Amino acid sequence: MRNTVELCVVAVVIIWFTQWFRRWRNPKCNGVVPPGSMGFPLIGETLPLIIPSYSLDIHPFIKTRLQRYGPIFKTNIMGRPAVVSADSEFNDYIIQQEGRLVELWYMDSLSKLFDMQGESPTNAVGAFHKYIRSAILSNIGAESIKERLLPQFQELINKTLRAWSTQSSVEIKQAIGNMVVNFTAKRMMGYDAEKSNTNFGVVYKRISDSIMSLPLNIPGTTYRKCLKDRKEMISMFRDMLKERRLSPNTNKQDFLGKLSNDMDSEKFLTPELIVHVIFGVLFASFDTISSLLTVALKFLSENPSAVEELKAEHEAIIRSRENMNSSLTWDEYKSMTFTLQVINETLRMANVLPGLLRRTVKDVSIKGFTIPAGWTVMLVTPAKLLNPNAFPNPLEFNPWRWKELDSYVVSKNFTPFGGGMRQCAGAEFTRAFAATFLHVLVTKYRWTITKEGRISRNPVLGFGKGIHVKFSDKEN
């Protein structure tokens, strides 16, 4: 009798597991889902996705499935069903549907760190998003760069490179990240890094390193440390906001000051929303520019002819001034033709993320497929940036290609800062800061890579043990 009961229990478990596994592999859908595989139960196809690829090409996980299934395929990442697309028509449609059929989304690790559970400031559309974008642009947009920021960039970079030149070497991505995030924080909310006990650069590096980690809040994990860091920073931002609210007459006209002053008239501006927006904006400033300039220095170190052309361009700018020691101007920045080609080529090849992420809020039907509500959608932006039909030999660093590229091809394929209503408000800030850095670097310093970690994708851009650079003043 006992054996019979045990056999029945085993049979029931096997039947239940078989049914559950079948449902896992074939999720319910009111239509036809794209081809693909959901991988193993619970973890999906996460493991092959996070295996590092030591190439700037599209990650092999994505590339092999594009070849196997076509430009749109289904998968499961960290237990979440997803659709991955390199189809331009599909991607453009998804971007246009934000706020209607889809919403902004990140991996679970980041979504929890950035408080994206449910209604979130980083997930907002409509009036709030337009307001925040306008506030950011008024603080670090083109007009601010033109009127005020270029000389500040130059002063900061001069001071920083002078300090770096006294050291045996610096790990360049972290060092640039520290410089940029501290500058941005000071500009946006009056933060003084020298008087603070919190190192923003260290905190945001940990967050960047944990993007593809499992969100396990247990002792010893990087994710738990990130949660603790986030809590401390959010608390600091709350205190700064509270101080501004208590002293409205002395409010600085920076980003935090504007949001603080507008809380009475803009009802969507809550204290929690404001501090999380600041947390997110600072993270974006830390990672984007540091990755761009790190890869640019690597490429330039391998291409002396590009360095010589950069030197010629910037030395010509200095010679054309009445006062050779005067600060960089907007017209000079806009005249840096080859510099901006170097920046564009680096942006094209070294996108930090494997794509843009959205989540469906309703069933989405397009191109014969239906994406069920609640699924993640990854739009593979590097598919355009590395398109060999638009950019021949796409993995070759060739800034000179931009002299011949057709403007229509560029407009359709070059989208390093996203698109639609989510196009990065810091795009001009990124380009101008990078151009100023290169201007100071090639006119005043020499540099040598002393230790080079391998650039990889897992699928997020990474630098292994880091790229270490020795700087030396040309006059010494």
Task: Flag low-confidence runs.
Answer: 116-124
Largest sheet: 5 strands, mixed
The total count of strands amounts to 12
Q: Widest sheet: strand order?
A: 1-2-8-5-3
Count of helical stretches: 18
Please give the share of residues in helix: 40-55%
Oligomer: single chain
**Mind telling me the C-alpha Rg?**
24 Å
* Percent range for β-strand residues: 5-15%
Tell me, what's the shape?
Answer: globular
Mean pLDDT: 86
Would you list the SSEs in sequence order as H and E? HHHEEHEHHHEHHHHHHHHEEEEHHHEEEE
In short, what is this structure?
The chain has 476 residues and is of the alpha+beta class. It contains 18 helices and twelve strands. The chain has helices spanning 2-25, 46-50, 60-69, 88-96, 108-113, 127-140, 142-164, 172-189, 200-209, 222-246, 255-262, 271-301, 304-319, 330-334, 337-349, 382-385, 407-413, 427-444; strands at residues 72-77, 80-85, 102-104, 170-171, 356-360, 364-366, 369-371, 376-379, 445-452, 456-457, 461-462, 467-473.
Features:
476 residues, 5-stranded mixed β-sheet, 52% helix, 18 helices
Would you mind describing this structure in some detail?
This protein is an alpha+beta fold. It has helices at 2-25, 46-50, 60-69, 88-96, 108-113, 127-140, 142-164, 172-189, 200-209, 222-246, 255-262, 271-301, 304-319, 330-334, 337-349, 382-385, 407-413, 427-444; strands spanning 72-77, 80-85, 102-104, 170-171, 356-360, 364-366, 369-371, 376-379, 445-452, 456-457, 461-462, 467-473. A hairpin with a 3-residue loop joins strand 10 (456-457) and strand 11 (461-462). Residues 116-124 have low confidence and may be disordered.
